[in-house]
Amino acid sequence: MRTFLTLYKRELATLFFTPVGYIIMCVFLGVLGWVFWLLVQVLNLPASYRFNEDVFSILFGGTFFYWIVLAAVASALTMRLFAEERRSGTIEVLMTAPVSDLAVVLSKYCAALSFLLLMWAPTAVFVIVLSRFATVDYGVVLSGYVGTVLLCAMLTAVGLLVSSFTRSQIVSFIISFVVILMLFSLSFMQTVVSPFWRALYSYTSILEQFKDFPKGVVDSRPVVYFISVTLFLLFCTVHSLESRKWR
User: Fold this and answer.
1) Contact at 8 Å (CB) between 175 and 166?
2) Residue 116 near residue 152 (C-beta atoms within 8 A)
3) pLDDT band at residue 193, thresholds of 50, 70 and 90?
4) Which among 208, 179, 242 is positioned nearest to 61, based on CA atoms?
5) pTM score, whole prediction
6) Is 246 helix (H, G, I), strand (E, B) or coil?
7) Range 51-57, long-range pairs (CB < 8 A, 24+ positions)
8) Alpha carbon distance 162, 233 (integer Å)
């Protein structure tokens, strides 16, 4: 446990003490703030009575920006975790130290996920501001955050696994970003495949599993899905490190 905490603090400090982390955070909050402002303006128009959703049911997964920003941010935060260690040669020192592969993987994963979730913390201001001028459905807000945490956990695991395969941060970012977009696109593939594959794509589609969270519904099935996929990806990352020890 002590080893894990030491590595975790080291990785988290790297994100906080480099300008890249703050640049990613500023871009992330800038885009979300702009989307929030835009949704408030649109839903205040006279014709907006035809919309049944409120601001937060759309903010959480209801726009293209939500998905593309999360894909980009998760890829950017994880691209250096193993790739930079391989490029600089410090991975050999780390892997020969008296620490387990699991501790290394979990420390890097938890640090990246912690930073990503901390980036969401300032968005609580959106709830406070809107509650002063309109009625806020706190059930939608809470379930939206729950779904976002689960989604961030899964996307961080995807980026970490990809980073373990390469020594280039740029390559890691591009592959992670493309893989995440492909996972998002599984929902659209349902219209061009046979009924058997349609059911499979529906179950494995992130968009399908996420769709109830912005409605204020926290179902056990998508929760199990996101947790299971995340654990499987971390398992694959650990074995990726173990396999490279024997090369």
Assistant:
1) yes
2) yes
3) low
4) 208
5) 0.88
6) coil
7) 53/214, 54/136, 54/137, 54/140, 55/126, 55/130, 56/126, 56/127, 56/130, 56/136, 56/137, 56/140, 56/141, 56/144, 56/214, 57/137, 57/140, 57/144, 57/214, 57/215, 57/216
8) 10
